[in-house]
Amino acid sequence: MAQRLTYRRRLSYNTRSNKVKVVKTPGGKLVYQYQKKAVKAPRCGDCGVALQGLKAIRARKLARVSKSEKSVSRAYGGSRCSHCVRSRIVRAFLVEEQKIVKKVLKAQ
User: Fold this and answer.
1) 21 contacts 35 by C-beta, under 8 angstroms
2) Quick check: 1 pLDDT over 90?
3) How far apart are alpha carbons 1 and 37 in whole angstroms?
4) Which DSSP string corresponds to 8-63?
């Protein structure tokens, strides 16, 4: 018959924060090892694609990580992907160009 296992911590329900894996010890006993929650990579605020160059780590660990590992050295680095940043810059440029064209046409 299989060996019965009990949780090692006080939380006795099978919740998202209480996930376990069965491991055999060198002494031949089966015990529970607690698993960390799965982590999603940080995502672009505009299109939702995963951001490149950033680690997928939990929030508490993110506070201990250096600033260079939390962002990318670019405008909107760590918040928006490169495609969205490029489209924002192009859009802003075209809006300014449109204003200049309007001013020129109005002067004529």
Assistant:
1) yes
2) no
3) 31
4) SSS--S--GGG-EEEEE-TTS-EEEEEPPPP-PPPB-TTT-PBPTT-----HHHHH
Record the pTM: 0.71
Query: Distance between alpha carbon 65 and the CA centroid of its chain, in Å?
Result: 14
Judge residue 80's burial from the number of C-beta atoms within 10 Å of its C-beta, 0-12 exposed, 13-18 middle, 19 or more buried.
buried
What one-letter code names the amino acid at 7?
A: Y
Q: What is the pLDDT of residue 81?
A: 95
pLDDT in tens, 18-77: 999 999 999 999 999 999 999 999 999 999 999 999 999 998 999 999 999 999 999 999
Distance CA 88, CA 80 (A): 10
* Runs of H (alpha helix) within 1-108: 59-64, 82-107
Whether the CB-CB separation of 41 and 56 falls below 8 Å is answered with: yes
CA distance 23 to 13: 19
